[in-house]
Amino acid sequence: MTLILDPDDPTGWREAPGAADRERADEPRGAGHAASDRLTAGLNPQQREAVEYRGQALLIVAGAGSGKTRVLTHRIASLIDGREAWPSQILAITFTNKAAAEMRERVEALLGEAAGGMWISTFHSACVRILRREAEAIGLSSTFTIYDSADQRTILKRIIKELDADTLGFTPASAQAKISKLKNELSDVETYARNVNTNDPNDVMFLEIFRQYTRRLRDASALDFDDLISETVYLFRAFPKVAALYQRRFRHILVDEYQDTNHAQYALIRELTRPVEPDVVAELDAHGVLVRGMTDATGAIPGASLTVVGDSDQSIYAFRGADIRNIVEFERDFPGAKVVLLEQNYRSTQNILSAANSVISNNFDRKDKKLWTADGDGDKITGYTGYSAHDEAQFVADEIEALHRAGVAYRDIAVFYRTNAQTRALEEIFVRSALPYRVVGGTKFYERAEIKDAMAYLIAVANPLDELAIRRILNTPKRGIGPATETSIASFAEQNDLSFRQAMRAADGLGLGPKVTKAILDLANLLDAAAAMLVPSQKGIDEGTNEGASKVSEVLAFLIEGSKLVETLRTSRDPQDETRAENVEELLAQTKDFDRENPGAGLVDFLTQVSLVAAADELDDASGTVSLMTLHTAKGLEYHAVFLTGLEEGLLPHQMSASEPGGPAEERRLFYVGITRARKRLYLSLAMSRAQFGEVSVAMPSRYLQEIPDELVDWKQSPGMANSRGGSQPRALNARRGFGGGAGSGGGGAWGTRDRDLERFSVTKSAAPKTEWANRVTGTVRDNGDLTLEAGDRIRHTDFGEGTVRQVTGEGTKRIAHVAFDAAGQKKLLIKIAPIEKL
Ligand SMILES: Nc1ncnc2c1ncn2[C@@H]1O[C@H](COP(=O)(O)OP(=O)(O)OP(=O)(O)O)[C@@H](O)[C@H]1O
Ligand SMILES: [Mg+2]
């Protein structure tokens, strides 16, 4: 085993530390100075207690906006400021890289100096760092590739095809989900094989898929996202001496958003907080690792102190294996743990908090806690019912403009939704209104095909074993290497126990045509030449630096040139290819930035950084734009004004979760997370009809809306929705008809159906229909009754003006008029509720 120690850990050097380092390392630490007043000023007593507590385990449970993240930040600063810990002895885990960067900034601001060597990162980043250093121990190349979800599916697709597993109903997505779930539970192929039901063909097939998948990743020296965590846990369990280096190093471990950790992450924390046993301490000592002054009376190095903060009401990642029990059972797992409760909220107005409280109180199985603020009620919440997604989006855009005119910066406004598909209407309207906005997440830059192509060139250079990367670019751009050739290279590799890349070099002997053979060899040569550019000079090798090696941008430029990647796109006839060429050039520009910002870093560092970019990392506070994002991405963030859109049954709760056990409760927590992001203004909106999967359908308001007390919300409707037949229909009738669909079905119409659903699926305590509430939202909803329309009829629409009906399709409440408007062009309208009248 090699002991590679941390260059940024002043106590960790094995060989000849600089004199200054040695001096610093010998200074006593852990003297237990009280945190300086400066760091606790402005904290409430419970927050201060949490910052100053110095025991082994500390759990901070508190509702949204009560200062949990703030306490973590102050705690880190106070440990360093009080000279109780070196920055390098801190490991803080956040949920996104953005949160990590923010926390580092705040700690350094509190300390008034840079605190190098501190590890503040996500679980995944921390594990990549550890694994790149220790890869050898588990037989992995330190240049291993990280496979994203799309890569996983590509591999699974191949495996499923080869095994004919689709006949048993396996899809890449289903296999991926199952593998991910197992890995999050730290169950590997062998464990699964031991428990498999050999009489069940499905189980047997899945085992084979899992086995092949594992083997292929291994052969390619690749890890998927879940592996990053589980492999680190295996590493620590199998190599106690490697684990000891990190257990010794990290004296204080702090975890934010603990409620969303899964079992593997929990196990990792357990490993990191174990004490180092005396025999291992002795071995470290023998290797020159500084242990003096760190051991207790028994000769062991005590386990690190652990602080976790979380809010079980904000647990929204059960679908990714997050285990709420981790927080509930913390006290059992860490006996003697101190628990601090924070109650006061510093983020939102009381009206917003009251709405959040009353929504979340409908979940069973939770500790009741009420958020409160000393800052007053604030404005009422604004509710809006639009007749279509576009109408809803227009409302959002208008309100944003109004806020902006009143002095609220665009960057302090966010629009949330449940699914990415909902951005379309919002974007259309925002573009039309010239509103500066930014979609966080969505189709990410690095997920574009052309970017993945360019990245595959880089990956193939960094990791010659990565078959997925090389096969992706084998014929991209087109060089006449078809699928049959690809297959013969693959089987040649298989038969001769070669990697795909080695097999390419033997192309001469495969009996292929001369042109194809040359194309294959040219590609192999191009990649080899690029790899040669990465070798440092002799001086660099001697000193263990990258000196003399080409920069990432130089290597990429060389590959783009040699492969004609951009050239081919530029000369293509597909108009989209011009944009694709620009995107690849944008990537090149990014590598230049990377080179400039990270002197001495290499290709693998760049690839790691790209792999770890999480959705929320694209947020840029200084950008002066409105942020659009999913509710999941919104976690931990706060904005002056927040718009929660698409609050309809089927979207929230999402139809996929409505029938899952615990689904509606988790969706409610998601709603709660959304509400509690708002500081001053909260807007709740929905659309009466929404086009989804190419079909327009009538929507029902989200069941969660009626859990908010009426007096907190001012409901407005679209002007186009007031019934044009001037209130001739009594409100009660409209209410009973609800949002369509249920009318005439007896037993209370739509609301009746809804409530039965509630009983069946959710853990809602009281599902009694709130007719009054229903009246408020649906009372003035336009209802055209059974307005008869047929082709040739002339109509007038509130927004689109006059037009001619071309066709009527659909039945009953779902009848759709296809109308050619004189000025506005072709539109499809849901006859029941569209703001139209027959002329
Ligand atoms: N004692 C305090 N005095 C003034 N402001 C505070 C105090 N504590 C927290 N805040 C502010 O309240 C807001 C919410 O704090 P923070 O983000 O730490 O809460 P949180 O509990 O982590 O929330 P979430 O559950 O959403 O992650 C922040 O703007 C923070 O600066
Ligand atoms: Mg927080």
UniProtKB/TrEMBL annotation:
<keyword id="KW-0238">DNA-binding</keyword>
<keyword id="KW-0067">ATP-binding</keyword>
<feature type="compositionally biased region" description="Gly residues">
    <location>
        <begin position="738"/>
        <end position="751"/>
    </location>
</feature>
<keyword id="KW-0347">Helicase</keyword>
<dbReference type="GO" id="GO:0005829">
    <property type="term" value="C:cytosol"/>
</dbReference>
<dbReference type="GO" id="GO:0005524">
    <property type="term" value="F:ATP binding"/>
</dbReference>
<keyword id="KW-0547">Nucleotide-binding</keyword>
<keyword id="KW-0413">Isomerase</keyword>
<dbReference type="InterPro" id="IPR027417">
    <property type="entry name" value="P-loop_NTPase"/>
</dbReference>
<protein>
    <recommendedName>
        <fullName>DNA 3'-5' helicase</fullName>
        <ecNumber>5.6.2.4</ecNumber>
    </recommendedName>
</protein>
<feature type="domain" description="UvrD-like helicase C-terminal">
    <location>
        <begin position="350"/>
        <end position="636"/>
    </location>
</feature>
<dbReference type="GO" id="GO:0043138">
    <property type="term" value="F:3'-5' DNA helicase activity"/>
</dbReference>
<dbReference type="GO" id="GO:0016787">
    <property type="term" value="F:hydrolase activity"/>
</dbReference>
<feature type="region of interest" description="Disordered">
    <location>
        <begin position="1"/>
        <end position="44"/>
    </location>
</feature>
<dbReference type="Pfam" id="PF21196">
    <property type="entry name" value="PcrA_UvrD_tudor"/>
</dbReference>
<feature type="binding site">
    <location>
        <begin position="62"/>
        <end position="69"/>
    </location>
    <ligand>
        <name>ATP</name>
    </ligand>
</feature>
<dbReference type="Pfam" id="PF00580">
    <property type="entry name" value="UvrD-helicase"/>
</dbReference>
<dbReference type="InterPro" id="IPR014017">
    <property type="entry name" value="DNA_helicase_UvrD-like_C"/>
</dbReference>
<dbReference type="GO" id="GO:0000725">
    <property type="term" value="P:recombinational repair"/>
</dbReference>
<dbReference type="InterPro" id="IPR013986">
    <property type="entry name" value="DExx_box_DNA_helicase_dom_sf"/>
</dbReference>
<dbReference type="GO" id="GO:0033202">
    <property type="term" value="C:DNA helicase complex"/>
</dbReference>
<dbReference type="Pfam" id="PF13361">
    <property type="entry name" value="UvrD_C"/>
</dbReference>
<feature type="region of interest" description="Disordered">
    <location>
        <begin position="720"/>
        <end position="755"/>
    </location>
</feature>
<keyword id="KW-0378">Hydrolase</keyword>
<feature type="compositionally biased region" description="Basic and acidic residues">
    <location>
        <begin position="20"/>
        <end position="30"/>
    </location>
</feature>
<dbReference type="InterPro" id="IPR014016">
    <property type="entry name" value="UvrD-like_ATP-bd"/>
</dbReference>
<comment type="similarity">
    <text>Belongs to the helicase family. UvrD subfamily.</text>
</comment>
<feature type="domain" description="UvrD-like helicase ATP-binding">
    <location>
        <begin position="41"/>
        <end position="349"/>
    </location>
</feature>
<dbReference type="InterPro" id="IPR000212">
    <property type="entry name" value="DNA_helicase_UvrD/REP"/>
</dbReference>
<dbReference type="GO" id="GO:0003677">
    <property type="term" value="F:DNA binding"/>
</dbReference>
